[in-house]
Amino acid sequence: MTDHTNADTLRTPIVAVLGHVDHGKTSLLDTIRGSAVSEGEAGAITQHIGATDIPLDTISGMAGELIDPTDFDLPGLLFIDTPGHHSFSTLRARGGALADIAVLVVDVNDGFQPQTEEAIDILRRTGTPFVVAANKADTTPGWNPQDGEPIQRSLEAQSERAESMLNENLYEIIGQLSDAGFSADLYWRVQDFQKNIGVVPLSALTGEGVPDLLTVLMGLSQRFMKEEMAIDVQGPGEGTVLEVKDERGFGSTIDTVVYDGVIRNGDTIVVGGQNEPIVTEVRALLRPRPLEEIRTEKKFEKVAEVGAAAGVKIAAPDLDQAMAGAPVRVVRDRPLEGVIEEVKAELAEIEVETAEDGVVVKADTLGSLEAMANALREAEVPILRAEVGDIAPRDIAVAETANQDEHKAILGFNVDLLANAETELENADMKLFTDEVIYQLIDDYETYVEERERAQQ
Ligand code: GDP
């Protein structure tokens, strides 16, 4: 093991899961979380705080002979719980992606699909190392891996027919990766994960191959990403807000991924807010309790500090205006003004241009708001107001103030209508459009505008 001094310790790599709809992203995350829980490790995550921490000893417990834990000095893997390239590209850290590494889930029977291509483009553009999870291998007739056996050996132990059927599908995926400009191979044949993409046949349903995937991710991080994982563990914490949530007994809280330094109870923090940076003091740092304790105890456990990389729920006054996707910075050993300026500078990168008249835009994170604004600019639709968060009565009131009737509209991307806005909406003189696909959302709005125009002629 390498000796790391206090000032230069390795943090957990942050992993995102991407892939086409229905190829098994959610199932894979559930299985990873579930296996960690059934490993019986203290601290296994049961409550959602946006990210799941899988410590090295849990991975090694799952992976058996696949892994020798003494080969590693990275502490484990931290999975972002929201899958998809949307959250990958809109959750950022210092202008880059929050995730260090990605799992691209591809259904072995279905191969590359449009969202697989999109995900690949994003991974290429951001230079993010990734591994392919060739999922649903259990649907290949004859697939019969032995418990606890590495997939390679299981594959060889199958009937020749099953092996060749699965192999055919796997080589199809390897070919598609090659068409996309990546050299790839079955993971046990890959020597250098920087040059070659490892493909791991697995089943998110049965869990077979999942330990292999975790092992490959650990190996990739350990060998090629150590420098990026070196942090000052005692430094002022830096993180990204995943979600703003009301939590009983705590008020507004922010689910946060801390990617650098340490955040302590009582710290002064600066958080990106709707109107201006929020300066507040940490009241509680909350981590989910292990399942077996929840029956008797509260859902969350208060901790004194959280070091990177980790998911944590932060309770503090004035967080109701915090924005998903915004930066969180601990103020320690440096002037508050400087930290506020840093947060402002990061937010300024995601400035949305608004006009005197236009539509109201709501989106789930800052990054997605920016993506919406760009798409609307291309479509030449002006924006009156753009904000992160669910649709509130106030938004309906604002949308109604638009001058042109065609602008009396809210375009909500990946957001819900708040319960207290429902009656408001019924009586409102405006239109609401919501979708989880930006282009679909804008298409719907444009169709509406065209139909209005036609009706008036
Ligand atoms: P997502 O849209 O990518 O998050 O996909 P889901 O995780 O929701 O999975 C889509 C469907 O495929 C669900 O019905 C899952 O039960 C099923 N599924 C996911 N993984 C597997 C697998 O490994 N094997 C089989 N047979 N079905 C799977």
Automatic annotation (TrEMBL):
Residues 10-226 form the Tr-type G domain. The keyword Nucleotidyltransferase does not apply. Coiled coil: none annotated. The keyword Nucleotide-binding applies. GO terms for molecular function: GTP binding; GTPase activity; translation initiation factor activity. GTP binds at residues 19-26, 81-85. It comes from the Archaea. Function in general translation initiation by promoting the binding of the formylmethionine-tRNA to ribosomes. Seems to function along with eIF-2. Belongs to the TRAFAC class translation factor GTPase superfamily. Classic translation factor GTPase family. IF-2 subfamily. This is Probable translation initiation factor IF-2. The chain holds residues 1 to 457 of 597 of the full protein.
